[in-house]
Amino acid sequence: MRILAIECSTEWLAVALSDGGDCRERRERAGQTHSERVLPLVDALLAEAGCPLAALDGIAFGAGPGSFTGVRITCGVAQGLALGADLPVVGVATLEAIAQEAHRVHCAGQVFACADARMREVYVAAYAREGGRWREVMAPAVVVPADVEVPAGRWFGAGDGLETHPLVVERGLFCAIDPSIVPTARAVAELAQARLLAGEGMRAAEALPLYVRHRVALTSAERAAGARL
User: Fold this and answer.
1) Which of the four pLDDT bands, split at 50, 70 and 90, describes residue 144?
2) 223 — phi, psi (to 5°)?
3) What is the pTM of this model?
4) CA-to-CA distance for 36 and 191, rounded, in angstroms?
């Protein structure tokens, strides 16, 4: 099953093409240029693999939470490509993609994912690996670091929120941490494979971002203070 995966929820832009075994991925630090760079990167990846869009079995996207703009771009591009090629889509939570990447890199089986949410907040979720899939122990949420509640047990901490907000590390019993882990298109593709095989794909029009935080604008005072959504 060939899947194109797109992930733009952080300053990184990543696309991947996976057939369940081999995976090609292209990543670049796009900053604020995701909208300009995502389609050229997709085209380059498909051309490199000799795989036209019509030969895909589905499209996966990093649904969020993350950058509002990046998440909207990812969802919109996935919808547009899927609609044109009549393909199913799968939205993958970016915090679960962090857990998947922690498993791939560190063989972690219990992952507490923590991503910087700006505005002095973090996105958090906890996942335990069972039978080759992740069980959601704690659903994605946005909280201030002082209010983070890490589930009982020994967890592998992953995500840049652990470095940006050290208080989070103090609030849990972590066996190890890796703040450098980000959600990757490869992880999104790996998670989407099983879901598409299980018939969990959806029509393009049904694809939605996972925002968690529902604020879409900053006050003048917040902008002047340098806050970002």
Assistant:
1) very high
2) -65, -40
3) 0.92
4) 26
